[in-house]
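=== RUN LOG ===
request id: a7f3
mode: sequence -> structure
chains: 1
length: 172
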Amino acid sequence: MKIYTIIGGVNGVGKSSLTGVLKALRNDMGIIIDCENCENADALSDGCLEKGVDFTQETTLSGKKTLKTIIDAKEKNYYIRLYYVAVSSAEESISRIENRVRKGGHSIPEEDVRRRYKKRLNDLMAVLPYCNEVRFYDNENGFNEVGEYRSGELSITCSTPPQWLLEIKSHL
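=== RESULT ===
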């Protein structure tokens, strides 16, 4: 089975860190594509689809290209798995990005982060119908799996769900 894994969430939530954690636990991630740091990410994902190889893509889910890639993968009989990671606020994401920049990492304009945070639920809702499996991670204090989505239904898997997960549940 061909697998397309998506590590999704707004900027600064820890997508790259979660990718590292998952790589250590799984052997089915295929080629890893980081859309924030790779100028030819579109060509790489298109190439993976063309060759029928497993691949993983880090993305904010905010662009039209991500949804197109998901639809293309579905049409090519990929199993689509989304790991969605979130934090409590745009301010938390911005703070994490500032910390990353202090350590030599890449910056994202604050207005982009705020815009993406504001529309994050709509972006997520657009891709959910195409996913075979979705796991939700809260990254306020390390990666904690807090929910799972299958067959159109969200199951909360923790005793005290984060507010953002409750917002997702209310949108379903």
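=== NOTES ===
The domain at 3-171 is CATH 3.40.50.300 (Rossmann fold).
The mean pLDDT is 93.
=== END ===
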